[in-house]
Every structure is written in C-alpha cells, then in structure tokens.
Design a protein that fits this description.
Blueprint (H helix, E strand, L loop, with lengths): L5 E6 L2 E5 L6 H17 L4 E6 L3 E6 L6 H13 L10 E6 L9 H8 L3 H9 L3 E6 L6 E4 L14 E4 L3 E5 L2 E4 L4 E3 L2 E5 L25 E6 L2 H10 L6
Parallel strand pairs: 5-13
Antiparallel strand pairs: 1-2, 2-4, 3-4, 6-7, 6-13, 7-10, 8-11, 9-10, 9-12
Helix pairs in contact: 1-2
C-alpha cells in the first residue's frame, strides 16, 4: 500500500498527519505503527500523540520538528513492514447477547432479518482491529463489522448507556467503558470492567493493555456466566 501521509501544522505546537480518507484495517495498522514509531523517536519532545482511524495528532512541548523531519521519520516507520515495531495483542471479550442487557438487539435482528444465533455468529466470528481511541477515555473503535449488521448511529442518543455495553455504529463496534450517554445500537454487554486509563494515549506512560492495531474478538456467554463475572470482576480488563 503506497502512502504519502500529509503533515499539517494546526498551531504553534501541534501537527496533524493524515494517512488516508477511508478507515480500514490496513490503514489502522499503518496509523498504529506510525504512532508507536514517532512516540519512540520523539518522546522527549511530545506532550501527547493521539491516533485516530485515518489520522495522527501530535502535540509538542514547544515548536514541532520540521515537516521534512516528520515525513522522513514516517518513511522510516513504514519502510520496514516485515519487522513491525509492535506485535498486536489479541483480546477475547466475553459478551452476553440478550435483550435484558441489550435494548437494541431485537430491533437489529428484525431489521437485518437475522435470528439471534445468526447475529451472534456474525459479530463473534470476526477478528476486529482497534482503529482508534476515543470518544471517552477507555473507548476503542473496532472495525469492521459485517455489512449485514452495520447500522447508522441512532437519530436520538440515549441519555444513559450502561458500562460494558457493546454497540454498533456504521461499520464499527465498541464497548462503553463506563456508563454514559450514547447513540450506538446496543447488542450485548461485557461483564468486565474497563478502567478510564485502560486505553491511555499518553506517550510518557507504559504501553496500555489495549492499543491501536490490537486484535479483538468477541465470544458469546450465557447469563449465568455473565452474572458470575459481573459479580466478581473488580479490576480492569486484561
């Protein structure tokens, strides 16, 4: 995949790197690779580095490096694809797919003309990649879901979505790390707790447990196992 990332100065200490227009698993891997490489080589100058599905935002303590230097570093980061700077972690996430914890499950089944077993199979038989981190601390955008269960965001967001809720918006799925408002269609719930720092983006901190480029797969569990895990789980997801 030939890329010519565009480096743009947003202000006196911030650069935005754009890698492409359309999110994809391949582009997410490239953004993640560049993110880690630049954090490693610009660590003393960076305040923060925030990867998204197609961009990377770099905030510096002072004046940023020249565009030419950043482009050179990006070229080095992308050149040796046979020896990645990061080996993606693989995460297995237990989910209860049940209308009692998933208020949109029945509607999604009806709109997609699928029964519960078919929907679960479509959501669990794919290995997703972490495309980006946001829109709250601990939230990962995972792509891409099967087209048959890809639905747009809700026209009217809910005032409250329970922590652990597993949702779909467009071709992306994700887990709400804490109770919050939200407009994604909720099809299940994970009983494990995700701490606000679980997806830390601060380059001065140790590598987070969950990171851009990581691989995530969901596995269906029954209500009894869900309740047991929910009752005893007191620590961040590993």
């Amino acid at each position: 995949m030939a890329l010519a990332p565009a480096v743009q100065a947003l202000n006196d200490n911030t650069l935005l790197i754009t890698f492409g227009d359309t999110p994809s698993e391949q582009l997410a891997a490239i953004v993640g690779r560049s993110w880690r490489f630049l954090k490693q080589h610009l660590a003393k100058q960076l305040i923060n580095a925030v990867p998204a599905s197609t961009t990377l935002l770099l905030e510096f303590k002072g004046k940023p490096p020249s565009t030419e230097k950043v482009e050179s570093l990006l070229s080095n980061a992308l050149m040796d694809s046979e020896h990645p700077v990061y080996t993606p972690k693989q995460h297995i996430i237990p989910v209860l797919y049940d209308p009692d914890v998933a208020p949109d499950l029945n509607a999604i089944m009806k709109q997609s003309n699928l029964n519960l077993d078919q929907l679960i199979e479509l959501h669990t038989n794919k290995i997703y990649r972490v495309f980006a981190l946001g829109f709250m601390p601990g939230f990962a955008f995972l792509g891409e879901v099967d087209k048959r269960i890809a639905f747009p965001r809700m026209a009217t967001p809910r005032v409250e979505v329970a922590a652990g809720s597993v949702g779909i918006a467009e071709n992306i799925t994700g887990i709400y790390p804490r109770t919050s408002p939200g407009g994604w269609h909720i099809i299940g719930r994970c009983p494990l707790e995700l701490s606000p720092d679980f997806l830390s983006e601060n380059p001065t901190e140790k590598p987070p447990s969950f990171s851009v480029g990581d691989e995530v797969q969901f596995t269906a569990i029954q209500k009894r196992e869900f309740e047991s895990l929910l009752a005893k789980n007191k620590s961040p997801l590993k």
